[in-house]
Amino acid sequence: MRIRLRSLKWIAAIALVLAAGWIAQVQLNWLGIVPGIAVKEVLIKGELHRIRREVPDVLVGRVMKGNFFTVDIGDVQSEFEKLPWVRSASIRRSWPDRLEVTLEEHVPLARWGSSGLVNDHGEIFNAEYEGDLPRFVGPAGSEKEMTGAFLLYQSELQKIGRRVAEIAMSARRAWSVKLDSGMVLALGRSDAQQRLERFVAVDKLIPELKDRRGYVDLRYPSGFAVKLLGQLKNKENVKATQ
Predict the structure, then answer these.
(1) CATH of domain 108-231
(2) Cβ–Cβ contacts within 10 Å for residue 173, how many?
(3) CB under 8 Å to 76, separation ≥6 — which residues?
(4) CA-based nearest residue to 175, from 151, 146, 134
C-alpha cells in the first residue's frame, strides 16, 4: 500500500513538472511566435504643432522590436523623448494589436542665452524656432525662477500695453527688464515686483516715457530716476548693478 502511494506521488510530481514545462512552452510560443499578436498599428496622440506625425511613424518602425507583448515600452518612450520638441512621451498597449503613443510638446516661452529655449514649465530645451520670443539672461539653474518672474512682470506690464523683450538676473541676483520699446528697468535685488508696480502706476503720468529708449532706475525707496536715450553715455548696454 505504501509503495503504491509513493508511486502515485512520484507520478503526480512528474505530471506537474511536465505540465509546467508545457505551459511555459505555450507561453513562449504565444509571446514570440504567434503572428496574430504582432503590433499592427501605432497611434500617435497629442496636440502636435511642431512635430510632424510622419517623424514619429518612422521612429516607431526603427526602434520597436518584438511583438505586442515583448516590445520594450521603456525603449520606445526613451527614443520619442529624444525628439527636440517632445517634452514627454507615454506609451501603452491597446488590445489586441495596437500601441498608443501620447506626446506632449514643449511650448516655447523664451530664448535662453544665445541658443537654447525655455518652455512654459521653466525647462531648457534645444530646438529650432524662428518665432519672436523674449530672452532670458541669467546664471545656470535659474531658468525656473526666471520663468516665474517673467510671468509676473509680463502680467503687470500688460496693464500699460508694454511687453518684456528681455529679463536678466545678474550673478548677484539683481533683476533688470528690457521692454519692447528698448527701455531698460533696473529693479535690483529686493522688492522687484513692488518696484515694477510703482513704475506701472505712474507710467501714464509721464508721457515722455512712452515708446522711448532709456534707463529707469527703480531701486530708490520712494521713487525712481529716468535717463532717456540722448542722456545716456552707454546707450546700448545698461544693466542693474545693485
Answers:
(1) 3.40.50.11690
(2) 15
(3) 60, 63, 64, 89, 91, 99, 101
(4) 146
Q: Where are the domains positioned within the chain?
A: 37-105, 108-231
37-105 shares its CATH topology with 108-231 = no
CA atoms within 13 A on the CB side of 167: 28
CA angle at 187 for the pair 185 and 191, rounded to the nearest 5°: 145
CATH C-level class of 37-105 = alpha beta
Using an 8 Å Cβ cutoff, are 105 and 50 in contact? yes
Task: State which residues of the chain have pLDDT below 50.
Answer: 17-33, 36, 232-242
pLDDT tens for 83-101 read 999 999 999 999 888 889 9
Residue type, 170: S
